[in-house]
Amino acid sequence: MNAPTEQPARLTVATCSLAGCFGCHMSFLDVDERIVELAQLVTFDRSPLTDVKHCSERVDVGLIEGGLCNVENVEVLREFRASCRYLVAVGSCAITGGVPAVRNKFTLESCLREAYIDAPGIDNPHIPCDPEIPLLLNKVRPIHEVVRVDYVLPGCPPPAEAFWELLTALIAGREPELAYEHRRFD
Amino acid sequence: MPQSSSLERVLTRISARYRDEPYQLLQMLRAVQASYSHVPQSAMQFLARHLGVPLSQVQGVVEFYAFLHETPRGRYDVRFSDNITDQMLGSRGLCERLCQHLELTPGQPRADGKVTVDYTSCTGMSDQGPAALVNGLAVTRLDVGRIDEMADLIDAGIALEAWPRDWFAVRDHIRRSGPMLDLQMAPGAALEAAVARGASSTLAELARSGLRGRGGAGYLTAHKWRFCLEAPGMERFIVCNADEGEPGTFKDRVLLTRYADALFEGMALAGFVVGAREGFLYLRGEYEYLLPHLESVLERRREEGLLGGNLLGSRVGFDISIHLGAGAYICGEESALIESLEGKRGQARVRPPFPAIRGYADKPTVVNNVQTFIQAAQISAMGSAWFAEQGTEKSRGTVLLSISGDVARRGVYEYPFGVTVKEVLADCGAGAVQAIQIGGPSGHLIGAADFERRIAFEDLPTTGSLMVFDWSRDVVGVVQNFSRFFQHESCGFCTPCRVGTTVLRQLIDKVASGHASAADLDELEACGMVTRSLSHCGLGQTAPNPVLDGLKRFRPVLEAKLLGGTDGPGFDLDAELSEARKISDESLKEGQHG
To answer: Which is deepest, A142, A175, B56, B80, by most CB within 10 Å?
Structure first.
């Protein structure tokens, strides 16, 4: 009788979106039917795909889309960092702040005034103030300004092939290598 | 924009003044800049056609040098020296004050085109800062009173000639002299001794003295001269490197002021020994104020038969011309300096071949520092034994230190080689010293553990700059200043230096801002090592020194800045929420009142 071959532990993967548009998640899903193959190789942990709200104690790979615009983003990111062995900054917003960071040219107050007080056609003009609404940061930040980041997937969004290469490489235990066309966009 | 016909007349005149010689392009462009407060595109096109050089080369030169501009500067062009020693004396605040008075932004000409205020690299006045250049001329010992008056003078349109003369006074500040500075040498004495002795015996005498180059590298002067002498070729040249750009250094300025005769004699001596008939003094643009003085010394020596075709009754002929730099630290590197002398961008050449074999116009060329030529002349006049009496086995003679920063008496000090740092500190009245930058930014940052070390080529070599920082100074701020300097001065030719100096500066800024983690310190070190080992020339090879020395000798100071601890970066959430909290507090108050 053969000894049972030891199965390598399945990697766990978590994903989340901070100040982003979910475009990176959509691009991830562009791996199409390979998602089935992937689901056999990894276990999905916290993710909008699973609707799990918090990470398990130990997650192997965490994919973060979006930058940091408010206090909740910072808390989620810190929790993610604490749980994940490898943290991946996915897409322009996570890496540089992206489109939300356009507001960094202005003060927070002038942004809020423009949106809630000065813009034409505002009914009951006042800046919202409710404990339910997370406080905004002075400036939108890329995630590496708050936590250590292990890998980046550049692009807006990164192509599905880039996600595929990253995950299959980490599953196989090698360093990911993004092909030129998967990291250059102009 | 000047009228095209009048522009062409002016350019033709400028070009003729320099014999329509393409090698004189940089000198011509300096003249254009002075006339039009920039170098118009049409002037570049005209000069390119007129001299038969590619437009790209002319444009390349204009873009390369800090004192040449493609767009107009103000008619008054004020540049504050931005060395750390100037900053420590309050230069930044003074610059801001002047900008406020004149209602302008640094670096941008005022809308009426009257004035530009900007920063520039060290102007060589660390002993009498805060200093600035106004239309290229050095202004020293700036204070609030002078700044306020300067703003008025500019607004009133008063010509520079009518400004207070003492603003332009540059003091020598010789605080301690030795055999070199004390020697009174009659003009001609060194040359006459050399002619009496013969060229080869003079070279042998120089070799016996053990004189090593005083520009920093410390190469044996006699070897360099011999290489040049023995190199194949009919024509040879002598070049004096007076591009004293190393921040915190000013000894050459003093030597050019007080010992110009000995310097020119040393150059003529070198010409006699290696058989050169032409020499160049490459004077840094920041020392333009010395030009009339130096030209008058040259003229007098020609009349005295100590220079020109009539040198020593025509037994030998040798003449010297002066070239001005235009604000580029890299031109202190000898091969970059030669490129600049040839009217090109100051980009270091691949060495070997060294200039002694292939230098100016690809001919054998001796390039030495100001002090080296003076000492060579003194050795010829006084003999090698006189010189070798002082110093250590491997570092003969004396060293000139330019001391600035937190000391009671800033200035030039002459010591025998082998003097300890501690002795020097005691003499110049340094208090509680935290750190010293010795040899300028490209040298080393040392702390108390190294104060017993000796200043000599075999222990602590130096170009002469010694900047002292007491405990009130932030070492990270010092490293930041020098890193910014190198980033600015990198010529951009090779990637390790161009990118490396930028990354180093960004990382040290990150450390200073409190956002760095220990991982960033590792990154700093790795980046420093790459820049040091892969850069094309000495600039890139020494640019990481402040950072690497900071990591090596002042690591706790850097680590104290890491708010993020060992792993993640520092991020102060409360500080980041300050605006939102203020807005919501106000919003709540309004709600109560409403």
So the answer is: B80
